[in-house]
Amino acid sequence: MLEKERKNQKARNSFEIFKTLKDFSDLVSFFLEKEIRKHGITPSQFFILKAIKEKKPGNQKQLGESLIHTGGNITVVSKLLEKKKLIKRVKLQDDKRYYTILLTPSGETKLQETEKAVKDILDEIMANLTPEETEQICETGKKIIDLFGAERVKAIRNYKPPVSNKKKKEKK
Prior knowledge:
Blueprint: H1 3-38, H2 43-55, E1 58-59, H3 60-67, H4 71-83, E2 87-91, E3 99-103, H5 105-126, H6 131-157, H7 165-171
Antiparallel strand pairs: 1-3, 2-3
């Protein structure tokens, strides 16, 4: 096979892998979002509740960094979760700009219920895979993530989309 043909074949394979991963991600995301919303919260709210539980307690900036969200988005979602009485935001005594975020008992209950539903959906999606296939998917996914390196993952988490000129003009 000529070098040009090999490169074309590799590009087709790469695109097919990308398309498969994207379709898989879209499929799982669709079913998970549908299930999470049945519990009266959004996927963003669910992942923030989960991160709060894991950080024990954390502040909004730490949550944003761990979830690939901008600080403003975390603030908005946190305020909504606080209105629903799922979290409690407590101002830090030394720095009034920062809030420690705590899960309330009803937030803990909501998270447990939603986590169970999410696990059931994932189990249903993966039911036809053998343990070896599941392990292979996990290992391959980790390998792809590792190819990007810790610095790139950190850069993605800290990414802030540029503000368009249109938005700047509207604010004036």
